Amino acid sequence: MAKIFITRRLPEEGIKLLKEHDLEIYEGDAPPTKEEIIAGVKGKDALICLLTDKIDAEIMDSSPNLKIIANYAVGIDNIEIEEATKRGIIVTNTPGVLTETVADLTWALLMAIARRIVEGDNFMRQKKFKGWAPLLMLGADIYGKTLGIIGAGRIGRAVARRAQGFNMKILYYSRRRNEEMERYNAKFVDLHTLLKESDFVSLHIPLTKETYHLIGEKELKLMKPTAYLINTARGKCIDEKALIKALKNKWIAGAALDVFENEPSISDELVELENVVLTPHIGSASYETRSKMAEMVAKNVLMALEGKLPPNCVNPEAWRKSERNK
Ligand code: NAP
Ligand code: GLV
Ligand code: GLV
User: Fold this and answer.
1) Separation of 121 CA from ligand 3 center, angstroms?
2) Candidates 3.30.1330.60, 3.30.590.10, 3.60.21.10, 3.40.50.720; correct CATH number of 99-278?
3) In the predicted model, what is the mean pLDDT of the chain?
4) Which pLDDT tens digit goes with each residue over 205-236?
5) Segments of the chain assigned to CATH 3.40.50.720
6) Residues catalogued as catalytic
7) This model's pTM is above 0.85
8) In whole angstroms, how far apart are CA 187 and each of 41, 182, 321?
9) Hey, is 295 helix, strand or coil?
10) Sheet of 3-6: strands edge to edge?
């Protein structure tokens, strides 16, 4: 029986797979503090954490038995991977199972900002609707427009696939060309061209040193004044101050955001703007997907506890190291 610390209650589908083991679950509604994580992980063999938990060297050192850090997310920017690898601690994530769900939300945001769905809903609730009118709440067409996808990974490609039905022209920028993208007639371009030519720009890169503030003032100024920016990747990929400036000065038409630079705190200036749609980091938040993520996280932990290489290990060197140390 292994000892496992879980930093939040997860869907039952995952918990029940771990029932043979000794589980300690943090029951708070808000993320645990660093001190609470350190206290929880002490003496544990496995840590299951969320993207809101920053897992650093100090936390890793507080449990010498720790074999695996299993993130309940595909993004792993919250974990100091190199530090984990150095210590022979396996890190896993939950890729694939959430791809379609996040692509769906990306499209929901794209359509909501272009067709002013949230503004329209507020307008109705405020009983402002006086009847159909030729100039009431005009927005932008989506069908036939140009979609710029930054990051041709799993989610970026799933977003492109949906664009087929809207007869969109697709441009993409990524570290390398991608065959599936090219099957959708997506054109591989540099970032400059993508920003200049797209009517919708959607971010699907991970947060890394290279993608931090990938979109700043210079990039926003390249975009069309009629274009929209959609971000379901990570808040820190965009310089949020520059984005607010762009939205206020109408350098771009609007933005739809699921992630924020300093979430969960959100800038007052952003909240006061009309040309934005904001959601609370719910990209993967469907019942089905959150259950699948919980199963995946549990399976990764079970494999690591058996000394096997988990299917979603992001640092296989750590596993090889731990095998040698046996
Ligand atoms: P993925 O399959 O790894 O795709 C990421 C893509 O970005 C890859 O094509 C990668 O290129 C490319 N890329 C990486 N660094 C780059 C750089 N510096 N410049 C240009 N392209 C770069 O990941 P995914 O499963 O699609 O997930 C993408 C991200 O979405 C996650 O990391 C996470 O942060 C975010 N996410 C958010 C939510 C939400 O709730 N809003 C949910 C899930 C995921 P290579 O192929 O060369 O590596
Ligand atoms: C969510 O943001 C994830 O990375 O899974
Ligand atoms: C609008 O409702 C129309 O019939 O054109």
Assistant:
1) 19
2) 3.40.50.720
3) 97
4) 999 999 999 999 999 999 999 999 999 999 99
5) 3-95+287-324, 99-278
6) 234, 263, 281
7) yes
8) 47, 7, 41
9) helix
10) 22-25, 3-6, 46-49, 68-71, 90-92
Query: Into which CATH architecture does domain 3-95+287-324 fall?
Result: 3-Layer(aba) Sandwich (3.40)
Q: Is residue 289 classed as helix, strand or coil in its secondary structure? A: helix
Calpha distance 76→222 (Å, rounded): 30
* 290 CB-near residues (< 8 Å, 6+ apart): 10, 11, 284
> What is the rounded distance in angstroms from the CA atom of residue 148 to the CA atom of residue 195?
7
Phi, psi of 4 (to 5 degrees): -125, 135
Residue 143, CB-side half-sphere exposure with 13 Å CA sphere: 1
To test the pocket of ligand 1, the residue of 101, 171, 205 to mutate (highest count of ligand atoms within 8 Å of its CB) is: 205
Token pair, residue 61, equals: 């050192």
Q: Residues 6 or more apart from 262 whose CB is under 8 A from it?
A: 235, 240
State which of 51, 52, 71, 74 you would mutate to test the pocket of ligand 1, scoring each by most atoms of that ligand within 8 A of its C-beta: 74
Q: Pull the structure tokens for residue 268.
A: 């007052």
306: Cβ contacts below 8 Å, ≥ 6 apart: none
Question: Both tokens of residue 85?
Answer: 């690898």
Contact yes or no for 232/283 (Cβ under 8 A): yes
CA separation for the pair 252, 243 (Å, rounded): 9
**Hey, whose CA ends up nearest to atom 1 of ligand 2?**
73
Q: What are phi and psi of 255, to 5 degrees?
A: -145, 145
- Contacts for 153 with CB less than 8 Å, ≥ 6 apart: 174, 204, 205, 206
Residue type at position 201: V
pLDDT digit string, tens, across residues 271-299? 999 999 999 999 999 999 999 999 999 99
